[in-house]
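for the writeup, i need someone to sanity check this before i put it in the appendix. the sequnce is what the collaborator sent (i think, or maybe the updated version? ugh). structure was predicted straight from it, no edits. if anything looks off just tell me and ill rerun, i have time this weekend
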Amino acid sequence: MKSPSNARPDAKLADFLCFAVYSTNLAFGKVYRPMLEALGLTYTQYVTVVALWEEDDQTVSGLGEKLFLESNTLTPILKKLEGMGHVERTRDPQDERQVRVRLTRSGKRLRERALGTDLVDACGISTGEFKRLQKEIVALRTNLLRAAGQE
C-alpha cells in the first residue's frame, strides 16, 4: 500500500483530505442545526427518518446497511425515535428473528416540517455541481471502504 501524501513530516492539517471532509461535515451540521432543533432530532435520527421516508417498513439490518450503522448504534436511535412517537418496531411475521421499522403518522409528518433547508444554496454551488460533487464523494467512500476491506 502506498503511503498517503499527507504522511510527509511537513504536511499541514489543511492538506489532509480526511480533515477537509471532517470539517465540512461539521459545517453541514451548522447548516442543519436550526431545522434539527425545530424537529427535536439529532442528525443521525434525522437521516434515519429520511431513509424511512425513502423506503418505509424496512428491516433494522437493511436500514443499518443503508445508513452505514452497526446494530448496536442503530438500535438506541430507533428506541429514541420510537419513544418520540416517530417510528414503530415490530417482529417480522415471516421471520421472527428480523425486526421491521416503519414510520408512524408523526414520523411521516416530520417531512413537511423538515422542508426549507436548501443545501444547494448553502453550498454556494450550482445544482449540477452539487450533484457531481455528491457522486464524487460517494465514489470516494466506496473506494475507501474497498481499501479497508469492507465492501
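The chain is about 60% helix and 10% strand. The radius of gyration is 18 Å.
thx in advance!!
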